[in-house]
Write a structure and sequence with these properties.
The protein is mainly α. It is built from seven helices and no strands. It is 63% helix and 0% strand.
């Protein structure tokens, strides 16, 4: 019985929630305040600097709110325990016995009833932390590390390209500074005639 995400938070649909950004239940106003303070302090100019400040803000926020990921992992662990308890009290063959030839396919209605019961009990026990079940594995320390690794690789690539761009601009400015203007071009003498 797979866990299905029935409702996604709107920001999850377009990537607004990231493990390194704002998670459900966290204070959106405080998150925005942190970003405003960073922009005021560092006065970013242009999209590259804006992106750097946004990344710094996201990482500072996540460091200050690591408890959210711990709560998400605890909620997931409890959900799996509830699911295991409730399935073991039924006749649904969901383990290795499913591979046997003499195993009958579970009744879809019974499987759906158990899934609803698991969700209902988890909602009651987990309360507001049930929102992390809806995100399933998006809010975990493993996902945080994976996100950070991807961000680090993207940042390294951006840095490399930015250095290339800076070098290119530096070479252009050097060559234009050493090049004489068109009015000062020296005249070259042509080939001399043989006498």
């Amino acid at each position: 019985m797979a866990v299905r995400v029935k409702k996604l938070y709107p920001a999850l649909k377009h990537g607004g929630y990231s493990v390194t950004g704002l998670l459900p239940g966290e204070d959106a106003a405080a998150f925005e305040q942190l970003h405003r303070e960073l922009r005021t302090t560092y006065c970013p100019d242009g999209p590259l600097e804006e992106a750097a400040i946004a990344s710094i803000g996201n990482l500072l926020w996540r460091r200050q709110n690591l408890g959210s990921i711990r709560r998400a992992e605890a909620a997931r662990k409890r959900y799996l325990a509830i699911r295991s308890e409730m399935i073991s009290s039924t006749t649904l063959p969901l383990g290795p016995e499913y591979l046997r030839e003499d195993c009958t396919t579970p009744d879809p209605a019974e499987a759906e009833a158990v899934a609803k019961a698991v969700d209902e009990r988890a909602r009651q026990e987990l309360g507001e932390d049930y929102k992390f079940i809806e995100m399933w594995d998006l809010a975990t320390s493993d996902q945080l590390l994976a996100d950070l690794e991807v961000e680090e690789r993207l940042d390294a690539r951006i840095d490399k390209l930015f250095k290339r761009l800076a070098m290119s601009k530096a070479f252009k400015s050097l060559s234009s500074a050493t090049r004489p203007s068109s009015t000062e071009l020296p005249r070259l003498s042509g080939p001399k005639k043989a006498a």
